[in-house]
Amino acid sequence: MGDLTTQANQMATRLRDGEVAALARAISLVDSREELGSQIHRAVRPYAGEAEVIGITGPPGAGKSTLLNALVSELRSQNKRVAVVAVDPSSPITGGAVLGDRTRMGEHTSDSGVFIRSLAARGHLGGLSASILKIIDLVDAAGWDVVLLETVGAGQSETEVAEVADINVVVNAPGLGDDVQAIKAGILEIADVLVVNKADSPLAQRTERQLKAMLQLRREECADVPVINTVATTGEGVDELLSAINEKANTKFSTSKNKRLIDRVRRLVAQEAAMQAKQVVLSDQHPATLALFESILAGECGYEEATMQLMTQSYAHTECA
Amino acid sequence: MSASLSEQGFCEKEAKESPLDVAENQWKEDYAKQIGDNNQDIKNMSGITVEPLYTPDNIKDTDAYLKQSGYPGQFPYTRGIYSTMHRGKTWTQRQLVGLGTPADYNKRVRTMLELGANAISLLPCNSGFRGVDCDVVPLPLLGTCGTVVNNVDHMDTCLEQVPIDQISAAMNDPSPFTLFAFMLNVAKRRGISWDKITGTSNQSDYISHFVANHMFYRLSLAGSRRVLVDHIEFCREHVPNWNPMSVVGQHIQQTGATLAETVGFTLSSAIQHAEDCLARGMDPDEILPRFTFFFDVSINFFEEVAKFRAARRIWARIARDRLGAKDPKSWRLKFHAQTSGVDLTAQQPLNNIARTAVQAMAGIFGGLQSMHTDAYDEPFTTPTAKTAKIAVATQNILREEAHLCDVIDPLGGSYYIERLTDQMEEEALVVMAKIDAAGGMYKAVEVGLVQTMCGESSMANQELIESGKKRIVGVNCYQDEEEEKIEVETTRPDPVLMQKHIDEFKEFKKNRSEDAVAKALDNLTRAANSDDENVFASVVEATGVGVTHGEIISCLRAELGFGHPLIVA
Amino acid sequence: MEKVFPNITDIPARALITKIGFDGHDRGSRIVAAYLRDAGMEVIYTPPWQEIEAVVQLALQEDVDLIGISSLATDHLIVPELMQKLSDAGLSEIEVFIGGIIPEQERPMLIEAGLGGIFGPGSSREEIVECAQRLAATARLRKQQAMAVAS
Lengths: 321, 569, 151
Known about the structure:
The complex is a heterotrimer of chains A (321), B (569) and C (151).
Chain A: H1 2-16, H2 20-31, H3 35-44, E1 52-57, H4 64-77, E2 82-88, E3 97-99, E4 114-120, H5 128-141, E5 146-151, H6 156-162, E6 167-172, H7 185-190, E7 193-196, H8 204-218, E8 227-229, H9 238-252, H10 257-283, H11 287-297, H12 303-314
Parallel strand pairs in A: 1-5, 1-6, 2-4, 2-5, 6-7, 7-8
Chain B: H1 2-14, H2 19-35, H3 62-68, H4 85-88, E1 92-97, H5 102-114, E2 119-122, H6 126-129, H7 152-158, E3 168-171, H8 178-189, E4 199-201, H9 206-212, H10 221-238, E5 242-243, E6 245-248, H11 250-254, H12 259-279, H13 284-287, E7 291-297, H14 301-322, H15 328-331, E8 335-339, H16 351-365, E9 370-372, H17 385-400, H18 415-437, H19 441-446, H20 449-466, H21 495-511, H22 514-529, H23 535-544, H24 549-560
Parallel strand pairs in B: 1-2, 1-9, 2-3, 3-4, 4-5, 6-7, 7-8, 8-9
Helix pairs in contact in B: 5-7, 7-8, 8-23, 12-14, 12-18, 14-16, 14-18, 16-17, 22-23, 22-24
Chain C: E1 14-18, H1 27-38, E2 42-45, H2 52-62, E3 66-71, H3 79-88, E4 95-100, H4 107-113, E5 117-119, H5 125-150
Parallel strand pairs in C: 1-2, 1-3, 3-4, 4-5
């Protein structure tokens, strides 16, 4: 595949030089899991790592896209080059998707300091995070300072994608039916900054209180999770939000930039590990394993102990396929 | 015998008047007062006298009749908002006109007036809807769907020799209503006092735009709300005979909502606008008499008639019981209807003349106050002078030859229409309950609830068409394989004249006082940022010193927010 | 017309549905966006009134295969300008189709400018989807070939 390697290296060079067409095409190749895409990614991987990756998620109707738009404006006013990667779900039936995030970002389409890419989740049963991370690496290597990763915080795969980001912002708004129940538990766990958007609503204070109460229930370091009020349509509170994000980033990664990258890789490998282990267990027909399942049924062994046993004893020395 | 007769007479004198008699007598009195000179006997072709109104001879349940139907001009106005309706005064013929330069507009509108139209309507160019002036637009896109009006001089030309103190005008212009501001300045120039100005701000219902017509909003949702209430307040004080509020059901129906949903959403919007005004301290009886409605009328003939009857009934009750209005003028749903372009086809276009006639009939039987009929070439182009004349003639034929004005609510009493009216009312109330549960129309639109409901209805309708279940002549049935392509003229403005118009506009900008303009824009900015200054008042002042349409809108967008669609497909 | 598919047939095509010029009536473009989504495409949908420059930037960043323009008024008159700008930006592999009200006498001009399809009122879902899929496949093939040549 000498040809492929040459092609990959050429694309990688053009991408790193800042050519938008090369970046856009490379993203498509990675997104469609093509070999060429993988090679391009590996070629640029050493050069990625500078960009700050901020995840923005939350229930539909919270005003994420509008807030994102305001964040882009704020970052641009600080002369940062901003990339937006917006992930929308694909239809499980047709495989198609309508990617509408650009609807809110009209004012930035003509700004050469802004790059926007809309992605469909493509119904990957797993590995979505890995795919997104590779894409972020490409964007990173192309020289963008900040990458805003937008997902709809509605399901588990979105929670996983959020782990790709260094800092996660979860956006809520008052009056979304069930109020904060709309936030899935998993998302709240990973939130580094919470936002109450549409803060000009009379119900906003109640939402803020509910969020803080939920934080206390779920996390010890709840005091470390700031709750910022914004009105995305007017831009109110957005500079405060950005400050909070930066502060969080400084605290979390005060040791080194490398820590940030290693942490990110660790989270992704953990996800992959969980997925791969799950696949292995599901297809394991070894008599010893089946006997273990019987002993769970008989009450001789608990689920947790049995799993621990399986992991440490049976799989520690198993070759992964 | 004579004893029993006199007994009868004696008994009749003593018998109390029933509620039905009271209502009927009241109607007769009002009718006599209002019909004036038009009080003539009408006989039909067979020599039979045509009464102005028909009622059930034997009403078993008079209470129900009075409660649900009543007499025309009486609460709840199901049969019509006036006691005389079209028999007293025919509907207003208000044809939409919009094309080319102001001179083109003026020429066409004077032709319309000569042909019997008794009101005018101005539709600005698409570039105007987007809030930009002609000097920054590519030439081929100017004046193709509306008239290019960017300053007071342009409006003056549009209205040359049009007696605006006598003729009702509709300005199809959303927030911040610059066209109306231009018109007020023209009135000033001509020494016409503003209390003589009549007409409607035809596209003042920003909610309907955010739901269903991205063509018609310029400012953000919140910004549009602010400017609308300012506009209503200003007109209430300074232009008291103008209708600043036109609640629009047209876009919602055209975007795919069912007819019952349209009534539900439209009336919910009216409630929202009214409540916003009340929240500012206005009295319902100060504002509701100047609320008008604007509906589409489709070819679903009976459903449309029932829709309008139901809408009147629901609104009367809301205005009186929910909004607390005491003046009967506040309870009356007055409306303008436009025949629906959605039903017209590009295939075999001459058939559209028949379609428009049927739609117009539905509107007339539905009790409209004012009407626009589409021309048959609507699917291809802005109408030519020739096709526009046919559209007007259609209305004239229905009035003069079919005598549709002779009887008030002639379909009232039809088993079908009465039942259908009740059913439409029920369906509409279900929709309104949903909107109430969502916190009102403003909130419902903000979160995309209404748009989603309309989108679903739209797709459902599309499926019916594609599957052939909804039959459209010439499109999915009775197609003409060898259809002769009829010559369809495309109307385009003369590029030379349009370029001249642009050049003159550039000259105008060079010659006006830049100081005055800058000062006016500062005032406008300040008004937009204040809590108690009237933005529309500043717009009127600014346009008076030469600030252009595009400049006003840029300024207000910066202060009050740019209008973007609220949800995606 | 024979179907042309590249060897990456399972990957959804990426289409942009948009409106340029000033008209804001988008009921039709929403319906077409839904058609394409239901046919398995990834559709980037924008509100109306997009500037031509913005459309070009979008097409570049999103690496779209296909652009569908909705034009009901006279906005189709500036589509040739869009085609030119796409070509100038190195995006001539992208296929473009248009739907809406396009007078007969103005269609040849559009075909000459390189449009792959023109859909007037009454066009069926099948027609539009078939054309869109064919155009997207053609675009992908051309992109692949262009890349192979470049290396």
